[in-house]
């Protein structure tokens, strides 16, 4: 299988950042909350990326923050795709009043800016990681619903699906054996894009003070904590911003490659 350079670069960068996040407690030179230097110290042998506004090691917090950021984004993406894909495929096959009701609910949710809804919900709900994951996952599931429904409706009119209906196959069998295998590629590619969207969304909420809360660290929170240093030419806020951009670009490279490999839907299920 030939892999183009951009995809290989994206896979390499994404894998590296995931490994660093998973093994952050073993790799980080200092504890996440340890104050080990002065305020906004420049990079040195002791602190490769310098220190933040109260003297904590930026590299250590970047590694721990990447772990929390990716964990929350992954959990939210899994919830979004579980809910969105299930109901999207269900409405495409069942149609009728189920399709009308769920589609109108999704339209209503998408009519309101997602950030505003999230800010309202998080301002009245307890702020913890589980609530954050569920809120982002449910709000993001509307986009997945629209995609999976559109893909499934294109597949549902194909000959092999009609043949399955004529054979008297049950709807669950048609969904999981005929439609889902042929819809997986665009859904998997969309998962990468939604994962990046979740990271950007989490970082935005943390920057506004309603995302990941202390004692945990995340990249958006690090930007908020060190933004004042930009006035004095300090780079502490730019380091997590660069990490977000690098992860977004690398995952997008992989997602684009997956989409390019399958430019059209192919009929038939695996034998």
Kindly summarize this structure in a few lines.
The chain is mainly α and 271 residues long.
Number of beta strands: 0
Distance between the termini: 22 Å
Encode the helix/strand succession as letters. Answer: HHHHHHHHHH
CATH topology: MetI-like fold
Task: Enumerate the spans where pLDDT stays under 50 for 5 or more consecutive residues.
Answer: 264-271
Shape: elongated
The average pLDDT score comes to 88
Largest sheet: none
Q: What is the CATH architecture assignment?
A: Orthogonal Bundle
Cα radius of gyration in angstroms: 22 Å
Helical percent range?
over 70%
Structure description:
By secondary structure, the chain is an all-alpha fold. The chain has a single domain, classed as MetI-like fold, CATH 1.10.3720.10. The protein has helices at residues 5-22, 24-27, 58-94, 96-111, 114-124, 129-156, 159-166, 171-207, 219-226, 238-261. Helix 1 packs across helix 3 (58-94) and helix 9 packs antiparallel against helix 10 (238-261). It is elongated. The model is unreliable at 264-271 (pLDDT under 50).
